[in-house]
Design brief:
The protein starts with a helix and ends in an 11-residue tail after the last helix. By secondary structure, it is of the alpha/beta class. The chain has 13 helices and ten strands. The strands form two sheets. An eight-stranded parallel sheet has the order 8-7-6-3-2-1-10-9. A two-stranded antiparallel sheet has the order 4-5. Helix 8 links the parallel strand 6 and strand 7. Helix 8 crosses helix 9, helix 11 packs parallel to helix 13 and helix 12 runs antiparallel to helix 13. The chain has one domain: Aldolase class I (TIM Barrel, Alpha-Beta Barrel).
Length: about 325
């Protein structure tokens, strides 16, 4: 077992998942504005530190993805944020891409930037305590998208990023996200997501990536947000498993789904059913941002000094997600 494989398994095993707390300052400002809390470094730190020091961290969270501002902050307990996370048994991680920009040659689509100077930045993040990283590629979906250009460009960037990360002794999260926006059917999502994942692994293999030392972070197979062809959760689970079984090499230790605009309950229920039907060797878990934080954020915004109350809300949500990784969640448990 390689060192990278050990780190990946530590993050994903034992009913644990990933807390995606890597919102950029711009995104975090939108979230805080939505609950009428001023967005400044102190408040952003206070909310995140409230979650990172919750009891549920040690039982339900195997890794935390941080943003550059946060990984450099000192907690109120005078520990660095990576130290605070490590004391719970979770692994600190870091988002290293610099965002999705317009793809030259295909103005409707995006390419993720951040490869320039990445090797040097990774060394600094390693020193700060990060042991895994994240890079997100985004893909539009329609009759003509994703284009061949988008498929190739984003897969190539994800592979180059992964090579640099593994060279630095860290585990790359490979996140190719086919967006939910649109009126497409679940079948169209299955077809396009299969193309995206297939192309990513083609490039990862060309770049000599150790597949036992990565974590795949894909979207679930869902109809578009404006589609009139809604499908039940068990159908979502079966299509998602079909996609992964047909396109992900068996060397990959685990898959941590993004919530991608689903509500907390939808993301939990769908993950639960995926695990009920899971007949693969892949660990199937969560790497959720909003679907782990939204209720806690709303509660916290009413009184940002009510740390214990906020942590109780977060612990409940993390517990529900953890049960879903074992296929043990039910709607009744939400209200207990």
């Amino acid at each position: 077992m390689s060192e990278l494989n050990k780190i990946a398994l530590k993050i994903l095993s034992s009913g644990k998942g990933i807390l995606a707390a890597d919102e950029s300052n711009g995104t975090m400002t939108k979230r805080l504005d939505s609950v009428n809390v001023p967005s400044n470094p102190e408040n952003r730190l206070l909310f995140r530190e409230t979650l990172f020091s919750a009891n549920g961290m040690k039982d339900f969270i195997g890794g935390v993805i941080l943003y550059d501002e946060t990984i450099n902050q000192i907690s109120n307990s005078k520990k660095t944020i990576p130290e605070l996370i490590s004391t719970t048994g979770a692994v600190p991680g870091i988002k290293v891409d610099t965002g999705a920009k317009v793809l030259a040659g295909s103005t409707e689509e995006k390419i993720t930037e951040g490869l320039d100077g990445l090797r040097e930045r990774l060394k600094l993040y390693y020193k700060l305590g990060a042991r895994f990283t994240k890079w997100r590629g985004v893909y539009n979906i329609s009759d003509k998208y994703p284009s061949k250009l988008s498929l190739h460009s984003n897969a190539h960037a994800l592979a180059r990023y992964s090579a640099l990360v593994q060279e630095c002794g860290m585990v790359p999260i490979v996140e190719p996200e086919v967006l939910m926006d649109g009126s497409h059917s679940a079948e169209a999502c299955l077809k396009k997501t299969s193309e995206v994942i297939n192309k990513c692994f083609e490039e990862l293999i060309i770049h000599k990536i150790d597949l036992t030392g990565i974590i795949l972070k894909p979207n679930m197979i869902l109809p578009g947000t404006t589609s009139n062809k809604k499908i039940p959760s068990d159908e979502i689970a079966k299509l998602t498993l079909k996609c992964l079984k047909e396109n992900v090499p068996s060397d990959v230790p685990g898959i941590a789904f993004l919530s991608g605009g689903q509500t907390e309950i939808e993301a939990t229920e769908n993950l639960n059913l995926i695990n009920k039907y899971n007949d693969t060797n892949f660990i199937m878990t969560y790497s959720y941002g909003r679907a782990l934080q939204q209720s806690a954020l709303k509660f916290w915004s009413k009184d940002i000094k009510n740390i214990k109350g906020t942590q109780k809300v977060f612990d409940h949500r993390a517990n529900m997600c953890s049960l879903a990784t074992q296929g043990k969640w039910s709607a009744e448990l939400e209200t207990k």
